[in-house]
Structures are given as C-alpha cells and as structure tokens.
Amino acid sequence: MLCLFLHIDHLKIADIAKTLGLKDSRSAKKWLDDNGVPITKIGGKNVVSQFAFEFKRQQLEVEGLRISYPNKWFEIYDANTPNKAIVKSIRELYPETSVTKKISNKSIKQFIT
User: CA-CA distance, 91 to 99, in Å (whole number)?
Assistant: First the structure.
C-alpha cells in the first residue's frame, strides 16, 4: 500500500499578525475568523495552514482588482503574482467569463409626463 503524505506548512498566529500588520494575536484571530480561515491546534499551539491563509489574502486582493479592472483583472494579477500555484487556484475560483458591453437602446422613445 502506497501512502502519500501532503506536506502542509503552518504559520503561528503571531506570524500572521506580523504579516497583516496587526498589533497582536487577538486581532489576527479575529481577522482569520472573519475571513473563514480555520485555526487548528498542533502541539498545543494555535496554527493556520500557510496555503489557506495566503489563498484568502490573495482572494481579497483579487476582489479589489475585479472591481477596479473588470475586464483585465486576471492578466494584471497573473503578471504580479510569482506563486503560479496560487494563480491557478484563483483561476479555478474565478473562471474566465466573457466580457459584455452595455448596449443602450436609443430606439425606445422616452415620454415625459
């Protein structure tokens, strides 16, 4: 029987607080809870999967890009993200959609009453 083990890196809550620029671990726990990133206990310490944390951070960045650049957000994101595994994961979360333009129908007459 072949057993495959997935290597998962974990981050301490204090490291997350430092990365996010927060003042303490309590603020980091609140950010993680608010954003749905699970906290697990390993060896009596609270830790978070590095991938889950980074994926959520990237997802929040993508949401901003999609608002600012709705037609070219993925190209901008892909060009500025060195971790191509995260880029591929984001593409799965936000599949490519066709760009549509609003068409104004000037043939409908407007009546003012």
Answer: 16
User: Token digits for 9?
Assistant: 């890196």
Helix (H, G, I), strand (E, B) or coil at 102: coil
- Spatial CA neighbour of 70 closest among 94, 99, 93: 99
Check if the beta carbon of residue 50 is closer than 8 Å to that of residue 9.
yes
**Domain segments of the chain: what residues?**
10-93
- Print pLDDT tens along the chain (113 aa): 455 555 678 999 999 999 999 999 999 999 999 999 999 999 899 999 999 999 999 999 999 999 999 999 999 999 999 988 899 999 998 887 765 555 556 555 666 65
Cβ-based neighbour number of residue 55 at 10 Å: 18
Question: Can you give the pLDDT at residue 21?
Answer: 95
- What is the sign, positive or negative, of the torsion defined by CA atoms of 21, 81, 37, 63? positive
| From the candidate CATH numbers 2.40.160, 1.10.1660, 2.60.40, 3.20.20, the one assigned to the domain spanning 10-93 | 1.10.1660
